[in-house]
Design goal:
The complex is a heterodimer of chains A (about 300) and B (about 325).
Chain A lengths: L1 H31 L6 H23 L7 H24 L8 H22 L4 E2 L9 E3 L5 E3 H23 L1 H11 L1 H6 L4 H27 L1 E2 L3 H16 L4 H22 L4 H15 L14
Antiparallel strand pairs in A: 1-4, 2-3
Helix pairs in contact in A: 1-5, 1-6, 1-8, 1-9, 1-10, 2-3, 2-4, 2-8, 2-9, 3-8, 5-6, 5-8, 6-8, 9-10, 9-11, 10-11
Chain B lengths: L1 H8 L3 H13 L6 H26 L7 H19 L3 H20 L7 H20 L19 E2 L2 E2 L3 H23 L2 H11 L1 H6 L4 H26 L10 H15 L3 H17 L1 H5 L1 H15 L8 H8 L3
Antiparallel strand pairs in B: 1-2
Classes of the chains: A mainly alpha (about 300), B mainly alpha (about 325).
Chain lengths: ~300, ~325
């Protein structure tokens, strides 16, 4: 029982990474019906820029502390959000009326550019985050279950970001416009919604969240390489599908469920096969319930 | 320009013989390195032509094609290692195994379209790769793969040099070309293109769309299995790297950049994705980036591909 609870906490931590990245996939799919393959690599760039920023700050201040994370996260979010908007502008906007295949290939192309840049700039070796930024202690919870300070930090930040996003999408005018655009571009335009502006906003928020997730993942695992974007990105995409793509609470739920299943699978079945479990879940969902758990949208089925 | 392309597209017989003679003579003045590059070009041209059946003719987004390439290679390697079957005799079995897996994976997902299909095929490709890495059934040798495979003996002749293997691949490439050209103009080929253009209309006209799509998948996958077996014929080591996602993407780009559904397009694509990066090594470090730039730029400037098929160009550009 104690082990199960411990695994659940670990699972929710990993799930919250997936959820943050999945939100980017699901929001873009909502407004453009496009799988933004570049999103995983934007997330990875978040980890790299966070690494550069933190290393520079630690060297500059000649000491580390949790307070350094704050300015770096601002830098990461702003940079990645701008890159996201740039990609939309260059690679997706000219293709908006070009059918389904062209934007998918363009998105894959953007992903390769980002990944190749990372590999050529930072090298193919594993990169390590500066240590000692977050206190290493563990806090005891009920029943002998322990949670690390890092996990508390991760959970607080991710849940805060998700709550803010939820309020933004469901309680503000821009959020309402966003939901309108995801239903119908033409009608939204007739109602006075600036569709291009809304899509650009989505490409600010999604990659911004993804970049932040990259920084958190870098801090949490301590080391990563350029394949992070692809492996993590695909998992996050599975989360988005699991919850119902296009559905924002669905992405959060899907991320949590995938994180938990994966941790339990690694703990009770075999760590080698945890990725296979995730992919099989994806295949099974797409075959039997392509709309996902919360999705009302009918998957492309004629 | 359009007229020239039009004339080139209907390559007359004299040209075909000329091209074949060129393909036979081309490696002779070259050294072994460039012969090996030509061999690689041939393998990927076969892979491109096989994927072209699925993506180009039937319009199904297959982004896990490398899995079938790997399945063919592993089938050939395993049969040779465990049962001592001569490599030549494993080739048909490689085709059958890859085709069978093609059937197995495509049967339940044919109702999915567009990007959903593409995601399932990516996931399937990763499952195959991870199963090979995790040494499934204890026979695939894990991440290191299998080695110690026999040399190919063909009618008493042991194939040793890159030149031998180039001619072997060339033979199968010509066979493939002949087959896909016949397929393109067959009843089945027309059914595929009908399904690609408008599935509902095709169904209304009495085309069994599920059957047509299934056949595209099975044939394309099986032929990729043959390419895998031909790989093993020269390289006596197989590893899960054959099934990497990047391999699938390279194959996909070969089909799409040259011109989806176009046979000359596959060769243009292979030249750009395989041959040039092999010759200009500096392109190799940046190959992924250059691939990416090419993909984005092509989709914006010339979505029908460099050497498109007439039907696709008309669909994208309208009547000329």
């Amino acid at each position: 029982m104690q082990q199960l609870l411990q695994q659940l906490i670990n699972g929710i931590t990993i799930g919250s990474f997936y959820a943050l990245v999945a939100l980017g996939y699901t929001m873009v799919y909502g407004v453009l019906k496009l799988i933004n393959f570049a999103h995983g690599d934007l997330f990875m760039w978040g980890a790299y820029i966070g690494l550069t920023g933190l290393s520079a700050l630690v060297a500059l201040m000649s000491q580390g502390g949790p307070i350094l994370i704050f300015p770096v996260s601002i830098i990461v979010i702003v940079t990645i959000a701008l890159v996201g908007v740039l990609i939309e502008r260059v690679a997706y906007r000219p293709l908006r009326s070009a059918g389904r295949l062209a934007p998918v290939i363009s998105a894959l192309g953007a992903a390769f550019i980002l990944e190749s840049l990372a590999r050529n700039i930072y090298g193919a070796s594993w990169k390590t985050y500066p240590t000692g930024l977050v206190p290493a202690g563990r806090v005891a919870l009920v029943g002998g279950v322990r949670i690390s300070v890092m996990q508390v930090l991760v959970l607080v930040v991710s849940f805060l970001l998700m709550a803010l996003l939820y309020l933004f999408v469901y309680r503000t005018r821009i959020g309402t416009a966003m939901r309108a655009v995801s239903l119908d571009h033409e009608v939204s335009r007739l109602m006075g919604v600036d569709v291009d502006g809304i899509i650009a906003t989505v490409f600010l928020i999604g990659p911004g969240l993804g970049g932040m997730a990259g920084l958190i993942v870098g801090l949490y695992y301590g080391s990563f390489d350029f394949t992070l974007g692809w492996t993590f990105g695909l998992k996050a995409f599975i989360s988005a599908i699991l919850g119902g793509i296009g559905n924002i609470p669905g992405a959060m739920l899907g991320g949590m469920i995938l994180g938990i299943i994966e941790t339990l699978g690694a703990g009770y079945v075999s760590p080698q096969w945890k990725d296979v479990i995730a992919y099989v879940i994806l295949i099974v969902i797409l075959i039997f319930r392509p709309t996902g758990l919360l999705g009302e949208r009918v998957a492309e089925k004629l | 320009m359009g007229n020239l392309m039009e004339r080139l597209r209907r390559i007359p017989l004299a040209w075909q013989i000329g091209l074949l003679a060129l393909a036979i003579l081309l490696p002779l003045p070259l050294n072994d390195y460039y012969r090996a590059v030509l061999w690689r070009t041939g393998i990927y041209a076969i892979l491109g032509l096989s994927l072209n059946i699925i993506v180009g003719y039937a319009g199904l987004f297959q982004l896990g094609h490398a899995a079938f390439y790997a399945l063919g290679a592993y089938t050939s390697a395993l049969l040779n290692l465990y049962f001592n079957i001569p490599l030549v005799l494993t080739w048909p079995i490689s085709i059958l195994v890859a085709a069978f897996f093609g059937y197995l994976i495509s049967r339940p997902i044919l109702h999915l379209r567009g990007d959903y299909l593409c995601i399932v095929t990516i996931a399937f490709g990763e499952v195959v790769r991870l199963a090979l890495v995790n040494n499934i059934f204890g026979i695939t040798g894990g991440a290191n793969g299998l080695s110690g495979i026999d040399q190919t003996v063909l009618f008493g002749l042991t194939l040793r040099t890159p030149l031998h293997h180039y001619y072997l691949v060339l033979f199968f490439l010509v066979l493939t070309l002949f087959a896909v050209r016949r397929l393109e103009n067959s009843r089945l080929g027309r059914a595929w293109m009908y399904v690609r253009e408008d599935e509902t209309a095709a169904e209304a006209m009495g085309v069994d769309t599920t059957w047509a799509k299934l056949l595209a998948f099975v044939m394309g996958s099986g032929w990729a299995g043959l390419a895998g077996a031909l790989y093993v014929a020269r390289i006596p080591v197989v590893s899960p790297d054959l099934a990497r996602f990047i391999e699938s993407v390279v194959m996909f780009c070969i089909v799409v950049l040259g011109g989806t559904g176009s046979i000359p397009g596959v060769f243009v694509g292979t030249l750009g994705m395989i041959t040039l990066p092999e010759i200009f090594r500096f392109l190799k470090t940046w190959r992924d980036a250059w691939m990416g730039v090419a993909m984005v730029a092509m989709m914006i400037a010339r979505p029908e591909g460099l050497w498109p098929s007439r039907r696709i160009r008309m669909e994208i550009r309208g009547e000329e």
